[in-house]
């Protein structure tokens, strides 16, 4: 799955030691663009954490997986990023760049009116 959204908050970096060595995890809060913006918490693990990209206000394109697991009768869902790219510009485009304005004015040559 993929999403393009604005990074609005960076949560504290989490680190620890596991059987495979040291790990680190960075959770970020993204906000989608549109009439009804949604907030999404995305987890970024290990070498995918790039501090220069993860600045509040940056627009990011994130490829991610959604995974759920059960623990003691409760279900937990993670959104894990596996690819992160910066998106240029201050805001997400709402219209294609090739859209041309529509002229709603009167025709310039009124003498060529058709009879119907």
Please describe what this structure looks like:
The chain is mainly β and 116 residues long. The chain is built from no helices and six strands. It is elongated, with a radius of gyration of 23 Å.
Structural class: mainly beta
- Count of runs of 4 or more consecutive helical residues: 0
Residue runs with pLDDT of under 50 for 5 or more positions: 91-100
How far apart the termini lie comes to 53 Å
Succession of helices and strands: EEEEEE
Write down how many β-strands occur, each being a DSSP E stretch of 2 or more residues: 6
Give the radius of gyration: 23 Å
Strand content: over 45%
Q: What's the overall geometry?
A: elongated
Averaged pLDDT? 84
Main sheet properties: 6 strands, antiparallel
Helix content: under 10%
Describe the structure using short key phrases.
single chain; 116 residues; mainly beta; six-stranded antiparallel beta sheet; 6 strands; elongated
Ordered list of secondary-structure elements with their pairings:
Elements: E1 2-10, E2 14-18, E3 21-31, E4 39-45, E5 59-71, E6 74-87
Antiparallel strand pairs: 1-3, 1-5, 2-3, 3-4, 5-6
What is the structure about, briefly put?
Helix content is 0%, strand content 51%. The chain has 116 residues and is mostly beta strands. The termini are far apart.
């Amino acid at each position: 799955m993929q999403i393009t959204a604005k990074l609005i908050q960076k949560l504290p970096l989490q680190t620890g030691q596991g059987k495979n060595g040291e790990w680190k995890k960075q959770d970020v809060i993204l906000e989608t663009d549109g009439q009804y913006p949604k907030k999404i918490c995305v987890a970024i693990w290990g070498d995918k954490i790039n501090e220069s990209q993860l600045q509040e206000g940056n627009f990011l394109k994130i490829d991610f997986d959604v995974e759920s697991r059960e623990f003691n009768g409760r279900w937990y869902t993670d959104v894990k990023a596996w690819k992160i790219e910066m998106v240029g510009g201050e805001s997400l485009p709402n219209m294609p760049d090739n859209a041309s304005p529509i002229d709603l004015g009167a025709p310039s040559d009124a003498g060529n009116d058709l009879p119907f």
